[in-house]
Design a protein that fits this description.
With 384 residues, this protein is α/β, with parallel strands linked by helices. 45% of the residues lie in helices and 15% in strands. Strand 1, helix 1 and strand 2 form a beta-alpha-beta unit. Helix 2 runs parallel beside helix 3, helix 4 runs parallel beside helix 5 and helix 6 runs parallel beside helix 11.
Length: 384
Amino acid sequence: MTRSISILGATGSIGASTLDLLRRNRGAWKVVALTANSRVAELAALAREFDADIAVVADERHLPQLREALSGTGIATAGGAAALCEASARPVDMTVAAIVGCAGLAPVMAAVARGGTIALANKEALVSAGDILMSAVERHKATVLPTDSEHNAIFQCLSGNRFVDIRSITLTASGGPFRAWSQDQLATATREQALRHPNWDMGAKITIDSATMMNKGLEFIEAYHLFPVELDQLRILVHPQSVVHSMVEYRDGSTLAQLGPSDMRVPIANCLAWPERMETPMASLDLAAIGELSFFAPDEERFPATRLAREAAQSGGAAPAVLNAANEAAVAAFLAGKIAFSHITVVVERTLQRSIPRGPTSLEEVLEIDANARVWANELMEHV
């Protein structure tokens, strides 16, 4: 039976991996909505290829170009934040939420409000508004399937087991391209070096987050909202081979781990086929060829991001939203050549030292906190 799907962030790395799987299973899916921020030519080509009902560009300035590219196809076009939410709210069997950053929060909430199934790859939605989002999921009887490789691994390891039996959950981290670098070396790291991830092919923002280890800090907060555990039951281990994606330890001493190649098509396929499984083009895992799996405790002196995220989660309230906004602003500044790599976490920490407002109770409050934190972070960047 053909199922319907919308992909928010179709031109990014998660969107590309999802569409590759759909391409291999043409008869199984009907594409309803595809969205992108500003890559109009690519969005239009994908909309034509998959005969989407509607293509939406978030940056409304590019809407005329999108309309021209899809003229005569019968594919509807729209632009702007409101159009993005309207497309997200269209009834489909599954929404893949892969818009990077806090820009994806409102579209995710719109998808949740219609009570559908959301394959969630936008970690910032849970970090900045975890309580609000998960309350909405419960209220609207929506289903959230974790698409990040680590959270999807946990999801798989929990299958068939009782939450009350969980002793701990361990998120693994590759350590990024700078795992073995000294603090002096980190201070001179370039944009090109930071974007050269040893294991994963990802977008620029998440690749920088991996290099600072902030990606794992954000995932730590995500896991707290996704799974019924306390903060002190969550662990982080550096695992350079990126073969073990996460582990769950049970109270009888058993530890279940999910292993797989470093390719996002594996966790995405798990979400697309859930509760069943589907074929992917991945070769079988060859552990003999890999030869060694190693694990290390994170070094929070060289990479303080995981400490900052844990402290923000412990503080609660608006602190995780401030952490996320400051990090997004600092990463953008680093990518633009405005600050040094080692200053990313400095900016985040100093922003968190500001007077943090009370916890948000609505999407509007989350977005206001996010905007204010970006202003604070940008002010601090003038003095680091």
